[in-house]
């Protein structure tokens, strides 16, 4: 039996219509290639996470036995779940790591959720305790079929808009995003490669993929990347099973390439992105020669950047070398 | 007989499909109101101008007697026409004012057009001379039915996505954008107000509207606004006739409000905009109390900002007071 099916994703698309933006593909010919960005940074909470959270909350609401939800998240899923829960009239509690960006903590609280901050390695346990104690339904950020099906709607839309694509590049943290997209793309565009992208400093999936078994990094290791949304030390169990079936390759990128991608997405693509959201585009810039000919899609997954960091990346050209193509305006 | 009709705009929508992005409406609840942005900054050349230019070039191509086009433009129409002409296999010459932003001049040349820079008040005359001498078809930036019909496709899309809107706010330079949108919105959503927005420092339409006759400012006066795309000293004759029929009010905005809108569109809306493209959103921020209840759309018309200016506007909070609401992240 398939873990998440194309039908699950099509059902999710029906549930999230009107809540998530149907994002267009944006030509990124400034990369020098036939590339399109899928700007999930433009979703209501600034990331693709609205899709999975809305689908999961809608399914709980249809079941009719839930008055509150709980999750753990480094930030973007937190905001998405808070948003979806408020829209559905449910309470939401979010367990966030103490080093989560202030931007994301404040935004989650502003959406009406109760935020509890704990050490990063305690967050799953604390979320489980709240679920048990308060009777809240757990909506984990990636290791959850309804969440994965929701993220997979991105793949549906890509297949609809660009059925002849050669590859889709997707950043990986817990693996929910690429799992869902992989199911949709491999079902609808079997010719297309599905390529995972990670920071070199949080390359646990690259190691797992090479070893053909799940390998975890430490949160101390993954904390080194500026892509704060991609610091999950190991992909989830359900995503891992889907990744093994649907993902063709894993590319890792330097911090310099991530910074260059943030800057180029802003100045050439007119998109404000957070470092985590720019990792797939960074992989395109840094590893173009390893990609197939034909149209390529990079998923731009989020835009909740810290303003000071964004300004620094826009202006800090010197630090950003490392083989990344520098384009004029 | 109507000057530009809903049918003209529907025909334009068919012609530009696949060339212009079908932009979504993006919730801008960060304004504290029920507001949606229409992000034309995400078009291939970074502005709505691709719509009108593509429609005009497609109509010339269908006529089959044109091998080249010529225009005058402060920049965004220039890039759009260069892009559309190249896509159609036509040559393009663009007459630009000497003070046009370097970003826009360089981008127009990169798209294969011949750029000629002249004093701003000479540009119409020089463009006409080139049309006469070279036999190139003139595609002026706004005083042209095919261009207006192309820009009007924005109104079609707004009416489709948000038929119950209460008002649409549109920045005005030569008037082609609001003319086209006005025709579509008044035909499809007659309850909605169509509101023109201008910098206080280039408020020729506000003066004309109050006087009920066309009034020109000098290019010396309009050069004072940072919104370099809105420095046209007087709206075109055809736009003026359409504006008199379809526009309900004119709002003018301070330079501080324009800067605040650029910053908030970036940090809250995740959109990179040029000052000209943020003027309608600035009007919403500065004149919210003068707007009707119900859903409002602000057109975000362009994103070709000078990088240094963009960084300055992101960081220069002190200068930006003037009654504009300051929102936290």
Radius of gyration computed on alpha carbons of chain A: 18 Å
Shape of chain A: globular
Assembly category: homodimer
Largest sheet of chain A: 6 strands, mixed
SSE order of chain A: HEEHEHEHEHEHEHEHHHEHHEH
Strand content of chain A: 5-15%
Number of distinct beta strands of chain A: 10
Estimated structural class of chain A: alpha/beta
Helices of chain A, by number, come to 13
* Average predicted confidence as pLDDT of chain A: 92
List unreliable stretches of 5+ residues of chain A. 320-329
Helix percentage of chain A: 40-55%
- How far apart the termini of chain A lie comes to 50 Å
- Largest interface, chains and sizes: A-B, 30 and 30 residues
- Main sheet: strand order of chain A: 1-2-10-7-8-9
Please give a structural write-up.
The structure is a homodimer of 329-residue chains. The first copy, chain A, has 329 residues and is of the alpha/beta class. In chain A, the strands form 2 sheets. The first copy, chain A, has a 6-stranded mixed sheet with strand order 1-2-10-7-8-9. The first copy, chain A, contains 13 helices and 10 strands. The longest helix of chain A is centred in the middle third of the chain and has 17 residues. In chain A, helix 2 crosses helix 6, helix 3 packs parallel to helix 4 and helix 11 crosses helix 12.
Short account of what is shown:
The structure is a homodimer of 329-residue chains. Chain A has helices spanning 6-16, 49-63, 76-88, 102-110, 123-134, 145-161, 176-188, 204-211, 219-222, 237-246, 255-267, 279-286, 307-315; strands spanning 26-27, 35-39, 68-72, 91-97, 114-118, 137-138, 167-171, 193-199, 249-253, 296-300.
